[in-house]
Amino acid sequence: MQRSRTRQSSETVKRVVIVDDHPIMRQGLAQLIRMESGLELCGEAGSAREGLEIVSKLKPDLAVVDLTLPDKNGLELVKDIRVMHPATICLVLSMHDESLYGERSLRAGARGYVMKEEAADQLISAIHKIMSGGIYVSEALSVRMLEQITSPSRTRAAGIDSLTDRELEILELIGKGVATKNIATQLNISARTVEAHRAHVKEKLGISDGAALVRYAVQWVETRTGV
Q1: What is the pTM of this model?
Q2: Quick one: which of 47, 59, 123 has its CA closest to 86?
Q3: Which residue from 52, 135, 153, 202 could staple onto 207, CB 3.0 to 4.6 Å apart?
Q4: Per-residue model confidence as pLDDT tens digits over 130-141
């Protein structure tokens, strides 16, 4: 009888991997997870490539994914995991503003979004909620999403909100001073495709020339990162 209870208990443990390029952040997250009954940290990765490899190998129940990774945007990793390993649920953990990336993360396939500055208080609650079939976002974002759905005068997205995930990613790289050729290499697309995305970004933001786009991108990145 005792063996039966032990086996049942072990089957309820949820296996978690962390994908974050900051070792100190991973260490803190790992400690939170290890301290929680019912959760087991089974792997860590510092890049999107390593993250996809470790998910493929370990088949975890949950992947905690940072948005800013050295080789690929975390949203793209979430999309890859969703397609290739649909049994693994994703929770996005990021320093980026939830108002901009929260909905995008859910659309990419994540089941929740937690700001890094709130991870110590919210991470475990978020994990339990999404592993129970729910979706975890802040109350403010939840209200915003409901208002968008129920508003009788829903308007078309404008400005930054109108950009696709790829366009937003390219805008951020422009703001960080990355040249078109290097953006193409980093995203594994052609320079011509990057230029096409730049043109779409300028059109959506109402920007007339390349220099103005660079200035806008730099200011936007500085505002978000507090530089």
Answers
A1: 0.75
A2: 59
A3: 202
A4: 999 999 998 887
User: What is d(CA 222, CA 118) in angstroms, rounded to the nearest whole number?
Assistant: 21
Strand partners, 91: 64, 112
Reduced 3-state DSSP string for the chain: CHHHHHHHHHHCCEEEEEECCCHHHHHHHHHHHHCCCCEEEEEEECCHHHHHHHHHHHCCCEEEEECCCCCCCHHHHHHHHHHHCCCCEEEEEECCCHHHHHHHHHHHCCCEEEEHHHHHHHHHHHHHHHHCCCCECCHHHHHHHHHHHHCCCCCCCCHHHHCCHHHHHHHHHHHCCCCHHHHHHHHCCCHHHHHHHHHHHHHHHCCCCHHHHHHHHHHHHHHHHCC
Give all domains of the chain, ordered by start, each with its CATH number.
7-146 (3.40.50.2300), 159-225 (1.10.10.10)
Region 85-97 average pLDDT: 92
pLDDT over threshold 90, residue 7 = no
Q: Are the C-beta atoms of residues 12 and 61 closer than 8 Å to each other?
A: no
Distance CA 217, CA 25 (A): 27
What are the tens digits of pLDDT across the range 214-227? 999 998 888 765 54
More confident residue, 68 or 148: 68
- Cα(198)–Cα(91) distance, rounded to whole angstroms? 30
The torsion angles phi and psi of 179, rounded to 5 degrees, stand at -70, 160
Given this model, what pLDDT does residue 174 score? 93
The residues pairing with 94 across neighbouring beta strands, listed in sequence order, are: 115
